[in-house]
Design goal:
alpha/beta, Arc Repressor Mutant, subunit A, Rossmann fold, 2 domains, seven-stranded parallel beta sheet, four-stranded antiparallel beta sheet, globular
């Protein structure tokens, strides 16, 4: 797993149907030029000589590479209070961390911005033939339309739908990706939580859902959201009965991931909610090679730490209020150790 640096140069995946093959060839050429200039440190003159081009043509190609997103550059301004926060947290947690500004200055919800950061991380990790699992969250739903072009791969929906939130872009994204001839999708056309265990068992026997849950055994990359098991910090909490809430709390739950509960020590918390939840298990998520976890808000501090202890995070995408709360908790502990 490569650490997010200050610059990335990426070869673009295969184009969508309707794009000309020459577009991909051009992007590959731009990536080669950008790599030579930004990574290998070669001059424009040297590159031009190798390719029988003028220095001005090389400069134009570098500009085009940035415009098309073949090259992305991140500047860490030391005057910014968040500068270097992801690296500092990453070192304390032993994870890859991506911090997103908490608000846009006018108090609007930052879910789309956090979701876009997740999509950017996906772009950096995805490789051909991977099996990628995606769970629902407000941030991912808000940013689903920004999902990058993907190579040939399997896309697995990790949990049923949680109705009543947002425009439902994740199901539409699954349907759209399913139109790509080299991408196989495994949707779950069912609610996340049902009223009776028998209903959940019947739904999970349906071939389409059974196939999706089976594919969750072989995840290369999983994308999940971390909620805290308390009011206002978990969309599942809002959808279940007070009995379910009380039972989970009494059993020690502090975190919730797609309806699965986790205690502060990172162990799974089992209640009868498990038998009514339609989605991947914690063991399936933990077995994935990489797990991108997204969380927002300082109220999810303990939930994030629990998920990390449960081996459910290798890449953490979070907003700045939560990042600063984590730093305040972890830095004194690290200094005492």
């Amino acid at each position: 797993m490569s650490k997010i640096g200050t610059m990335s140069v990426e070869k673009q995946p295969a184009p969508r149907p309707g794009h000309r093959a020459v577009d991909r060839a051009n992007q590959v050429r731009l990536a080669d030029v950008a790599r030579a200039y930004y990574i290998d440190g070669r001059s424009k003159v040297e590159i031009a000589a190798d390719l029988s081009l003028s220095r001005f043509q090389v400069a134009k190609m570098l500009d085009e590479a940035r415009r098309l997103g073949v090259v992305s550059i991140q500047i860490r301004d030391p005057r910014n209070r968040l500068s270097g926060l992801d690296d500092e947290l990453g070192s304390l947690l032993g994870l890859q961390v991506r911090v997103v500004e908490g608000t846009d200055g006018v108090g609007r919800d930052n879910s789309e911005r956090v979701g876009i950061a997740v999509m950017d991380v996906i772009k950096g990790l995805v490789k051909p033939r991977m099996t990628i699992g995606i769970a629902w969250s407000r941030a991912l739903d808000a940013a689903a339309r920004f999902i990058p072009d993907l190579p040939a791969c399997n896309i697995v929906q990790l949990a049923g739908a949680l109705g009543g939130y947002g425009p439902g872009l994740i199901p539409r994204m699954m349907a759209h990706l399913g139109e790509h001839p080299d991408i196989y999708t495994y949707p779950i056309s069912a609610p996340l939580v049902v009223d009776e265990p028998a209903t959940a068992r019947d739904l999970m026997r349906q071939p389409e859902i059974a196939d999706a849950l089976s594919m969750a055994d072989r995840l290369d990359l999983a994308v999940v959201a971390i909620g805290a098991w308390k009011e206002g910090e978990s969309t599942v909490w809002d959808k279940v009965s007070q009995r379910d809430r009380d039972t989970g709390t009494a059993a020690g739950a502090v975190a919730e991931i797609s309806g699965r509960l986790v205690g502060s020590d990172g162990t799974a918390v089992h209640t009868d909610l498990d038998d009514r939840t339609i989605g991947a298990t914690l063991d399936q998520l933990a077995s994935a090679t990489d797990v991108i976890a997204v969380a927002r808000g300082a109220g999810r501090l303990d939930a994030v730490l629990a998920a990390i202890k449960a081996n459910l995070v290798t890449v953490l995408v979070l907003d700045s209020p939560l990042a600063l709360a984590l730093l305040e908790r972890l830095k004194p502990e690290a200094e005492e150790a």
